[in-house]
Automatic annotation (TrEMBL):
This is Elongation factor Tu, chloroplastic. It comes from Octactis speculum. Residues 44-184 form the Tr-type G domain. InterPro entries: EF-Tu_GTPase, P-loop_NTPase, T_Tr_GTP-bd_dom, Transl_B-barrel_sf, Transl_elong_EF1A/Init_IF2_C. Belongs to the TRAFAC class translation factor GTPase superfamily. Classic translation factor GTPase family. EF-Tu/EF-1A subfamily. Residues 273-295 are annotated as: Disordered. Coiled coil: none annotated. GO terms for molecular function: GTP binding; GTPase activity; translation elongation factor activity. The lineage of its organism: Eukaryota, Sar, Stramenopiles, Ochrophyta, Dictyochophyceae. It is found in: Plastid, Chloroplast.
Length: 472
């Protein structure tokens, strides 16, 4: 609070009416009115957006990465101050702005840029700053950029994945705020590209909820918050919660659901929701090892005494799974992933221990083996376009590997002769075997992976999972 830095992920519900006007406030223009409660916003809105405020300070990069990987946003808005654009050169985007933009592009997320505080510059300075910004964004993303000037242009660019829209705004003069509101209103409502396009391991009828937070609410008990990745969850459903530290899952029952802070009977794929759960009790109250609780005293007892499941056992990365699956879910310590290095000032070798982010999972893992792969001529799909510069000056360019800007040809030659058990800054891609250090996790083939340790960044996809739970 003293520094004014965002240190946690905060969510704001933004509602729109049929005419595209924000419905969070009701009143005449110019009047000061209190914001509506979430239930009232839901009642007066035809479209709802959840805005996630992520941290921009380097100290809280882990929080930002968790938001980008775990919450699966449909769009990423990068806010850039006009004064930064006026500096030109590499200073148009700061170090952390480049870092965040590089991660978002590598994860194949849609990005648009909002230039703020434009009232502090003249029209000539704005034109000069935008020219520098266009050049920087095109170099980093490999995509074309469009300055949005009218409502008609919004309708054209909002659905174009190969374009990075730019909006110019000022909260002092109100410049561009109407265009920004219209842009948010017209954004397509669909699942984010972080959800794997590969065939899912689970059958389509199954449900998967990835947990990112947990609460112990008085008179309610354990409440879990997360995003539904596929399927649907209804009140009264029996689901499997886990994996716990020993790899097992336990049966729980969904007692109530809230979506957008409003009670609901059902939540579907793509929605973030909270679930009040209770451990599934056996049909026979006389089952051995079970606490006998009378209806009168049940309300007075805590979740711990009734269910034996404590909030401290809950953690990010756990999942809720349908209990009607034909095979019992398992947890894995080891997996393989195809990794593309975005930024790596050092050589990455076997026994290197980066932090691995997979959806809401964030855990250190040890590299067990590295299989070198022949560099591809271009980068497509998950990793961006043919010519891309991403975070920290790492270049992905057609006909080349990942190369540090300004590095000499001798460095490339040295890297090409290195052992296959290392990943150097000039090697673009490798197949890496990793093992979680502390506890098994629920992961599937096709899940997005982000490696983070110091200045090292790498992204990729899980290619295989070894379901053998054991100690490290």
């Amino acid at each position: 609070m003293e520094e004014g830095h965002t240190s946690s992920i905060s969510q704001v519900l933004l509602g729109f009416g049929e005419d595209g006007q924000v419905s969070n406030f009701l009143g005449n223009p110019g009047e000061q009115v209190a914001p509506l409660e979430a239930e009232e916003v839901l009642h007066h809105s035809t479209k709802l957006l959840t805005i996630l405020d992520l941290a921009g300070h380097p100290k809280y990069l882990k929080t930002t990465v968790s938001g980008l990987v775990g919450h699966a946003p449909d769009f990423v808005m990068l806010a850039v101050e006009m004064k930064a654009c006026l500096r030109g050169g590499d200073s148009v985007l700061g170090i952390m702005s480049r870092e965040h933009l590089g991660i978002a592009l590598a994860l194949n997320l849609r990005v648009f840029v909002v230039v703020t505080k434009c009232d502090s510059a003249t029209s000539d300075e704005i034109d000069l700053a935008l020219e520098s910004l266009h050049k920087t964004l095109r170099t980093m993303s490999g995509k074309s950029t469009v300055l949005v000037r009218s409502h008609g242009e919004i309708e054209q660019v909002v659905s174009m994945v190969s374009v990075v829209p730019i909006l110019v705004t000022s909260s002092v003069t109100g410049l561009g705020l109407a265009l920004l509101r219209d842009f948010l209103f017209l954004t397509p409502n669909k699942m984010a590209s972080l959800l794997s396009p590969l065939p899912l391991v689970q059958p389509p009828s199954s449900s998967l909820v990835r947990i990112d937070e947990s609460f112990d609410v008085d008179e309610v008990g354990l409440v879990l918050g997360g995003t539904i990745h596929h399927g649907a969850v209804s009140v009264g459903d029996s689901m499997l919660l886990g994996p716990h530290k020993d790899g097992h899952y336990e049966m729980v029952k969904i007692r109530s659901i809230q979506v957008m802070r409003v009670s609901s009977k059902r939540a579907v794929a793509g929605q973030s929701a909270t679930f009040a759960v209770r451990q599934q009790r056996p049909r026979s109250d006389s089952a051995p090892g079970r606490l006998q609780v009378s209806p009168q005293s049940r309300k007075e007892l805590s979740w711990d005494s009734i269910c034996g499941t404590k909030k401290r056992k809950m953690r990010k990365g756990m999942v809720l799974l349908s209990s009607n699956t034909t095979t019992e879910p398992v947890a894995a310590y080891e997996f393989e992933a195809e990794i593309l290095l975005l930024q790596n000032p050092h050589t990455m070798t076997v026994d290197y221990e980066p932090v691995v982010h997979i959806h809401t999972i964030a855990q250190s893992a040890r590299i067990k083996h590295i299989s070198s792969r022949e560099d591809r001529q271009t980068t497509h799909g998950t990793y961006g376009s043919d010519t891309t510069v991403v975070g920290g000056g790492m270049m992905v360019q057609e006909g080349m590997g990942v190369q540090q800007q300004g590095s000499s040809a001798s460095a490339s030659a040295a890297a090409s002769s290195s052992s296959s058990q290392v990943i150097t800054p000039v090697r673009r891609r490798a197949k890496v075997g990793l093992r979680f250090l502390y506890k098994p996790e629920y992961i599937s083939v096709g899940d997005p992976v982000l490696l983070r340790e110091g200045c090292t960044r790498g992204v990729g996809r899980v290619t295989s999972v070894h379901y053998s739970v054991g100690s490290v």
